[in-house]
Amino acid sequence: MSHSSRATSGTPLARTARNVVPPDGIEIRLRATPAHVRLIRRVTAVVARRADLGVDDVADLALAVDGACSLLVERAVEGADLLCRCWADVRGVHFSAEVSARTSRVPDPRSFGWRLVRAMTTTATSWVEPVRAAGHPLHVELWRRTAAP
Description:
Layout: E1 6-9, E2 26-31, H1 34-50, H2 55-75, E3 81-88, E4 92-101, H3 112-119, E5 123-128, E6 136-145
Antiparallel strand pairs: 1-5, 2-3, 3-4, 4-6, 5-6
Helix pairs in contact: 1-2, 2-3
């Protein structure tokens, strides 16, 4: 797989979910700075706890969100916003984030950061949209499966 197009692990999320947040989901738009990553991680942990994920699963997902958002912030165009969405359904907790990036390269799937994200989630996907004037739209989608009943 090319670093300039897509890096995936597991099965991609349902494409119908992209850009849609269910009524009980959360959407956050913040400046893409390291200081805001902590807030996004905490909000995701709240959604995961409400979805009845176990304590370890909540911690794993929060760590994955932290890692994914950090990778996006590192690549962000100066002054860009980080747009994050998080919601739960019967299958698990979904998280998506996007930022306008300086480069068209997705996170290196062999890097420690991306390996950590993949290890802490059921599915982790990253891709870049075609170039826009303000940068390269870089996306990350994560999903953590809930425990079977």
